[in-house]
Amino acid sequence: QVHLVESGGGLVQAGGSLRLSCAASGRTFSNSMTMGWFRQPPGKEREFVSAINWDGGITYYADSVKGRFTISRDGAKKMVYLQMNNLKAEDTAVYYCAVDRSVSYTSATMSTEGEYDYWGQGTQVTVSS
Fold first, then answer.
1. 10 DSSP β-pair partners
2. What is the spatial distance between Cα 48 and Cα 57, in angstroms, rounded to a whole number?
3. Are 8 and 20 in contact (CB under 8 A)?
4. CA distance 8 to 91
5. Angle 9-13-19 (CA atoms, 0-180°, nearest 5)?
6. Could you give the CA distance from residue 64 to residue 127 in angstroms, rounded to a whole number?
7. For the chain, how many helices (H) and strands (E)?
8. Cα(33)–Cα(29) distance, rounded to whole angstroms?
9. pLDDT value of position 55
10. How far apart, in Å, do the first and last CA atoms of the chain sit?
11. Is-contact 36 49, C-beta < 8 A?
């Protein structure tokens, strides 16, 4: 079992920045995982944001956040981060981190919600105008 805890959400003005963190732990944690960020805006379905291979530098971003968000990970600390810059009102959502126990190298699998095995409880990000 892999446990995930998100933090760093909050209220920010449009154009501002936030950095989300996700702490991973568990007996089955390994370096061959894929970790991703998803979000669910109010009244909408959950959508893909970004993903990264835990043991490599392959990243993938949704078009809506490309150029504004940056995903990264710290293997030693078992943490994954989402740096969010130039935030917009449409970025308002509950943000979730997730783990795919197997490593992925294609955008299709990295962005598919059903590929992920474990999910955090989410952290709220609210962007005001």
1. 125
2. 18
3. yes
4. 14
5. 35
6. 15
7. 1, 11
8. 8
9. 79
10. 40
11. yes
Residue in 40, 39, 36, 50 with CA at minimum distance from that of residue 4: 36
Rounded-to-10 torsion of CA 99, 103, 106, 108: -40
In what side-by-side order are the strands of the sheet with 79-84? 2-7, 18-26, 79-84, 69-74
pLDDT in tens, the chain (129 residues): 889 999 999 999 999 999 999 999 887 667 788 999 999 999 999 999 999 988 777 899 999 999 999 999 988 888 999 999 999 999 999 999 999 988 778 889 899 999 999 999 999 999 998
CA nearest neighbour of 11 among 110, 127, 118 = 127
